[in-house]
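Researcher: Can you fold this with adenosine monophosphate in place?
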Amino acid sequence: MRIDLHTHSRASDGTDTPAELVRAAARSRLDVVAITDHDTADGWAEAAATAVDVGITLVPGMEISTGLRGRSVHLLAYLPDPTSPALADELNRVLAGRESRVPEMLDRLRHLGIEIGADDVRAASHGAAATGRPHIADALVTLGVVGDRTEAFDRFLGAGRAAYVNRYAAPLEVTIRAVTEAGGVSVIAHPWGRGGLGRPDEATLAHLHDVGLAGIEVDHQDHDAAARDQLRAMARNVGLVATGSSDYHGTGKIDHELGCNTTAPDEYERLMELAREAGVRSERVTPLVTDGPATGTA
Ligand code: AMP
Ligand code: ZN
Ligand code: FE
Ligand code: FE
C-alpha cells in the first residue's frame, strides 16, 4: 500500500487544482493521498469528489503555519473540523497575515526597481485563500524577472533576502491544542528542515507529545539519511507516529514527486486510530476519509 500524507494544490501554493492533484496521485499508483494545503480546507470538497471518481483514498488535512522560539514551524493537521472556533479563528489570523504581507513585499520589490501589482499576484494565485511567496515568485516568472520559483526565492523572497517580510504565526503548542479541540491529529512537517524545529531533542518532542502532538514527518526530501534515522529513533522512543510524504507542489517545487516518500501502513493505521479517538473526544462533526477501494479504511 502506497500512502502519501502531505501534498499541495492550487488552494494554496501548489500548481495542480485539487482534482488534478488527486488524479495525479492515482496515476502515481498511490492508494492513499492527503491534501494538506497551507492554512485552508478550501480544496477538500473538490479533492474528495475526484477521489470517489478515481478510486483513491483521500485524507483531508492542512499544513498550518506556527512558531516556536522564533522559528517558523509547519504543523500538519489531519481530519480536524475546520469550523471549530479556536481553529477557525487561528486560520483566519494566519490567512490575514499572509494577505497583509503582500503589499509590503511588493513595496520592497518596487524599491529594487521591480514593478508588480497586487493584481499580478492574484492572477498567479488563481484566487487561492492562502497567498504565499510562491505566488509572488510566479508573478516574477511571468514578468520575466526570474526563470523559476527557486531563483525568485534565492534572489528576493527567501528569509533575509531584500523583499522578504515575516508574517504572523501562533505558537506551536496553541495550534496543537486547537487541532485537538477540532477533533484532528497533528504531525510536525519536516521537523529537521526549513520551517521546522531545527534539531529537536527528545525532551522537546516528549513535551509536545504531552501537549497532544501525534507524530512527526520523518521521510521528507529535506531530511538526509542520518536525519531520518535519528528522527525515526526519537519518534519510537517518545511514542510518536512516524510519517513520510512528498510535499508535492506540482511544478512549483522540483524533486518532490508524488510518492517519492511514503508512510508505512501500520504508522498510517495508528494515526487514523488516534484521529478517530480525537474526533470522538472532541464531540465535533469531523470530516471523513473518502474511501478508495484499495484500503477498506472507514
Ligand atoms: P510562505 O508560505 O509565503 O511563507 O512561503 C513558503 C512556501 O514557499 C513553502 O510552501 C515552501 O514550500 C515554498 N518555498 C520555499 N522556498 C522555496 C524555493 N526555493 N523554491 C520553491 N518554493 C519554495
Ligand atoms: Zn507550500
Ligand atoms: Fe512546509
Ligand atoms: Fe508543505
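Model: Folded with adenosine monophosphate in place. Residues 13, 38, 132-134, 149-150, 153, 253 surround adenosine monophosphate (ligand 1) (CB under 6 Å).
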